[in-house]
């Protein structure tokens, strides 16, 4: 009964955050989920490989300058190399879509709509401690993600839209960098593993363009909030496959769906 209550509560919270989700996802290490694949052994280390397909929907992240905020979707393939059942090193490659930055500049409401673009990232995810008595597993994650030289699809000022060919003298191509450090705990419920934690994350962004004879320059800005929380649930029907749901809030409003396969 207690297990059922925890499952229902976790799924309910995740679903609530998905419907209201307004930095990069955290995720569970493959060893925390007890996923196993083909082991490649040398003289010192056991190495396993896995791959994930990840969809990350950033509904809102507030920035420091000009009452600005950004939203985007990130679709990526993630390649994971696991060592000694403790550490995951990974990289991901993908495409950003629908990226949009809203700001108030010179008393005008400005919306920069950005082109879809490739992005990349790297990270490390590690198991810290297994509290067997309560079935709790502690883990940490650190990652960096970057989208570079994004072009402008349009700029809208107070409801009037300027298309790409009307944008003059772009101050700079839009750059987006984000990094995070997260600590969390997962509860082992056999095939279902809810988890939650806290994270430090920050971003840097820079953009600006001239339209209609006026320059609207957001300048270089960071995140308005750098401390946030995450909650998620990993479904592990077999040792070779899992489906993960995760929501993040306070520092940003976002939700991620991922599928992981070990080799």
Task: Describe the protein.
By secondary structure, the protein is mainly β. The protein has a single domain, classed as Lipocalin. Helix content is 7%, strand content 68%. The chain is built from one helix and 15 strands. The chain has one helix at 2-20, and strands at 40-41, 46-62, 69-83, 87-105, 108-114, 117-131, 136-150, 152-157, 160-163, 168-187, 192-211, 214-222, 227-238, 241-249, 253-262. A ten-stranded antiparallel barrel has the order 2-3-4-6-7-10-11-13-14-15. A hairpin with a 3-residue loop joins β14 and β15 (253-262). It is elongated and about 65 Å long. The two termini are 35 Å apart.
How would you summarize this macromolecular structure in one to three sentences?
The chain is 7% helix and 68% strand. By secondary structure, it is mainly beta.
Task: Provide tags for this entry.
7% helix; ten-stranded antiparallel β-barrel; Lipocalin; 263 residues; mainly beta
Structural class: mainly beta
Strand order of the largest sheet: 2-3-4-6-7-10-11-13-14-15
CATH architecture: Beta Barrel
The major sheet is characterized as: 10 strands, antiparallel, barrel
Ends: how far apart? 35 Å
Q: How much of the residues is beta strand, in percent?
A: over 45%
Radius of gyration: 20 Å
Number of domains: 1
Helix content: under 10%
The average pLDDT score comes to 83
SSE sequence, one letter per element: HEEEEEEEEEEEEEEE
Number of strands: 15
Note poorly predicted spans: 1-22
